[in-house]
Amino acid sequence: MRLTICWLFALTAFAVSPTLALAAAPTPAAPAKNASPMDNARKALNEVGDMNYQGKSLNDVIADLKDKSKVNVTIDPMVFQFGLDPNQPTVTVNLKQVKLKDGLRQALEPFNLKFGLTKDGLYISTEEGLTTKQLRQRVSVDCEGTAFGAAVKQLATDNGANIVIDPRLGDKANKAVTLKLEDVPLETAVRLLSEVADLGTVRMSNVLFITTPERAEKLRPSADGPTQPPPGNPVFPFPAGPGGPGVIGPPGVIFPGGMGNAVPGVVVPDRPVAEPKPEPKPEKPDEKPGKPEPGKQTEPGKPSGGR
Q1: For residue 294, is it left (φ>0), alpha (ψ between -120 and 50) or beta?
Q2: Distances (CA, A) of 64 to 61, 163, 238, 265, 273
Q3: DSSP letters of 40-71?
Q4: Number of domains within the chain
Q5: CATH code of the domain containing 171
Q6: 10 Å Cβ neighbour count for 89?
Q7: In degrees rounded to 5, what are phi and psi of residue 97?
Q8: Is the Cβ–Cβ distance between 201 and 191 less than 8 Å?
């Protein structure tokens, strides 16, 4: 009888509060946060596999890269001024079990091109073009009492840039900074954050190095200056070729003079030839010099001409 009462009590308690029986059940794990495009791109570039291209064009390699990595890939249009034809079958690579980034590096080497990550994906250009693209990405900063090192590290992570903080700074790298910037180049944001933290920044190729102002000043003579946008931005500054001054092509692009229609898929009109100006006609001389015109009096004391 006592056992029956105990069972009835247990059943009654379950009916009144069913959550008591579920309290000990394991809580499902929270869904993982979606990886950022930058994280996905880094992961894709580190994937290991075979890379086999036999007589493929650069466009073929890039299309295959997009398909494999699911990462946006962009070629700097400036590289075409050097006569690069991305449709020519000039890429031959046969590599086994290599990281995608190592295979891509070898595929681009014959073209003297480099690649790097930006917030928009993978960017292919010359070394100088890639550095300018990475360090002049537009960013916004909103720091209020944020540790300097954390703010700079976040900028580097989100934009794929190489920003190095001198490890000898110690606690100086954790100084709280307050700064708000809207739509400025990444390099400008880093330099201003460093200034607010009483630190200095120098550029060494594609690396922004942050250290004490004294060390920065010591490194400056051998360092590179701040990156600069092309003159006349957004028009690309192509040099004048042997055919004369540059020709304005599609909006935002200037092709070198004498280049004609060398760029596939882009038709550039010929430069108009200026017509020569007519030579000025010489003034008609007087038929009889010295003879005054009819009705015109000579000055007193001066002969009127002739003998």
Answers
A1: beta
A2: 5, 31, 30, 22, 45
A3: HHHHHHT-EEEEEEEEEEHHHHHHHHHHHH--
A4: 2
A5: 3.55.50.30
A6: 12
A7: 45, 65
A8: yes
Burial class (CB in 10 A: 0-12, 13-18, 19+), 278: exposed
Confidence band for 228, pLDDT divided at 50, 70 and 90: confident
Instruction: Give me the domain span that covers residue 149.
Output: 134-222
284 HSE (CA, 13 A, CB side): 2
Render pLDDT for 24-64 as a digit per residue (tens, 0 to 9): 444 444 444 566 778 888 899 999 999 889 999 989 988 98
CA dist., res. 248 & res. 257, Å (int): 9
Q: Which helix (H) or strand (E) holds 125?
A: strand 121-125
**Could you identify the residue written with the tokens 């009127």?**
304
Residue 181, classed as helix, strand or coil, is: strand
Task: Name the strand (E) or helix (H) holding 89.
Answer: strand 89-99
